[in-house]
Design the sequence.
């Protein structure tokens, strides 16, 4: 059996190198953060590399990440990037004990990767976006070179270098100074980045939303059932789902925001300011939004009271006509400040539904996470083809001429929301007591409305649920059903029928390419 000390010797010998590599990585990220604060916060290396990873991740993997990690998927990605960086930095530090140039070259290589990722991002403002990654790489390479020289113990040095002396205390002192300097650079970088965002925060706090020219109709009494565990009819802003690709939430100053309308069939192109939009007649509507990544029974939908500019009127003023009236463009491409592109059918936008450029959500300006200062939304379409957040551009084109972001990744070009129902209570694997148990939940089929919900216990007959009043065809509808629960395990299944008479299919399908289908069920045990 090998002596334990035989394992400790290499560990002790390589530990200074590993520490040098980690400090070099920390310095690199800190200097990059500082440079990003001076150039553009979104150009930081972790952000741009993470964005590049998201862009190149297969749709099925993205769907798995959303399903598994929910709204924490981006945090998990960033942690993963940093974990990989720690491993590589440790390895480069150990290598640099014997080959300093090789270690420094490795750091520079990663800087080049970050610079290329920054420059190639859809929201890149030019070569300046590469500066943070390059500056961080140079700082990291120099740091590693210096620390490696201090870290290399006599056993790893040539005789003449060993004779020059080696001081563990000197290495630790240099490492400490490096850590403090890097921490100061990181703090200053965060301060600079935050300062750029403070103007956006101030502009949102100062924004006073006008009263709508067309207020939302009064919500009928009873739309919110008094059943513990059922979803709130109106989803609070803080609870509203967020699914997007932005690693850093854009913070846009309302005073500098602009929206450009142009493209095929636009006879009067124009650029709008926020004040110009707010001066137009606004509509207020309760609308349920649904994410295409929502699995059967999933959480990625919500209802809010939206305030905004009718999109159809804006398009007509620009000279746009729907294809049914001779228009030459059949697709509207919405562009976000972060480079995201979403494509919506022009016919749907101008068919009378309340498609809008939203500026308010539940009585306040849009939260930054939900698109401040302006986002687009279209009732009846999944978010990936309609709900562009942080919108800055509208281009009219055709489906044949341009594939937006998600279509390039094998999602469908057209995606109307499918008829679905969800059981909110009882929860999966609940243990309700025998006797009367209230089964309740929500159902939705935007633009068509819900006319019937049925519940089945095990393989028994379908039984009609009681429906709450319907607010509008663009919002979800609550339902409930009293069940006399008997001891044992039971499977509860629900299905909905929409306003066209179509019954929710039992055929299961994935979220890709145009939304999940199937019937939601839960298993419970009655003791």
Sequence:
């Amino acid at each position: 059996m090998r002596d334990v000390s035989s394992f400790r010797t290499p560990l002790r010998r390589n530990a200074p190198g590993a520490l040098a590599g980690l400090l070099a990585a920390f310095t690199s990220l800190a200097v990059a953060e500082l440079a990003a604060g001076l150039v553009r916060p979104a150009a930081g290396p972790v952000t741009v590399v993470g964005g590049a990873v998201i862009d190149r991740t297969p749709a099925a993997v993205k769907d798995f990440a959303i399903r598994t990690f929910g709204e924490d998927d981006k945090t998990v990605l960033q942690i993963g990037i940093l974990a990989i960086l720690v491993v590589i930095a440790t390895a480069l530090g150990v290598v640099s004990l014997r080959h300093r140039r090789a270690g420094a070259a490795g750091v520079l290589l990663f800087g080049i990767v970050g610079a290329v990722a920054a420059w190639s991002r859809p929201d890149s403002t030019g070569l300046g976006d590469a500066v943070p990654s390059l500056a961080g790489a140079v700082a990291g390479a120099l740091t590693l070179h210096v620390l490696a020289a201090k870290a290399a113990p006599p056993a790893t040095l040539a005789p003449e270098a060993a004779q020059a002396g080696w001081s563990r205390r000197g290495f630790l002192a240099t490492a400490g100074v490096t850590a403090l300097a890097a921490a100061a650079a990181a703090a200053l970088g965060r301060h600079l980045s935050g300062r750029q965002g403070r103007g956006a925060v101030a502009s949102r706090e100062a924004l006073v939303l006008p009263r709508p020219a067309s207020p939302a109709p009064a919500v009928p009494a009873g739309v919110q059932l008094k059943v513990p565990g059922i979803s709130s009819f109106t989803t609070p802003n803080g609870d509203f789902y967020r699914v997007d690709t932005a690693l850093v939430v854009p913070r846009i100053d309302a005073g500098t925001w602009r929206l450009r309308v142009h493209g095929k069939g636009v006879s009067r192109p124009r650029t709008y300011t926020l004040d110009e939009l707010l001066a137009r007649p606004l509509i207020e509507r309760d609308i349920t939004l649904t994410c295409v990544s929502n699995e059967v029974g999933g959480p990625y939908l919500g209802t809010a009271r939206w305030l905004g500019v009718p999109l159809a009127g804006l398009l007509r003023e620009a000279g746009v006509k729907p294809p049914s009236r001779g228009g030459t463009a059949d697709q509207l491409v919405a562009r976000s400040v972060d480079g995201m592109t979403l494509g919506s059918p022009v016919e749907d936008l101008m068919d009378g539904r309340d498609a809008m450029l939203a500026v308010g959500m539940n009585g306040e300006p849009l939260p930054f996470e939900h698109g401040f200062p302006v986002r687009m939304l279209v009732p009846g379409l999944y978010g990936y083809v309609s709900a562009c957040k942080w919108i800055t551009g509208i281009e009219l084109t055709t489906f044949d001429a341009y594939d937006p972001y998600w279509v390039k990744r094998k999602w469908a070009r057209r995606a109307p929301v499918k008829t679905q129902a969800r059981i909110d209570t009882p929860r999966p694997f609940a243990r309700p007591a025998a006797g009367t148990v209230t089964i309740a939940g929500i159902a939705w089929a935007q633009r068509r409305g819900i006319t019937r919900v049925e519940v089945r216990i095990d393989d028994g007959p379908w039984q009609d649920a009681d429906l709450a009043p319907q607010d509008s065809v663009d919002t979800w509808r609550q339902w409930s059903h009293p069940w006399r629960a008997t001891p044992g395990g039971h499977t509860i299944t629900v299905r909905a029928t929409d306003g066209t008479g179509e019954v929710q299919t039992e055929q299961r399908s994935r979220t890709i390419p145009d939304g999940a289908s199937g019937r939601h069920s839960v298993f419970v045990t009655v003791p």
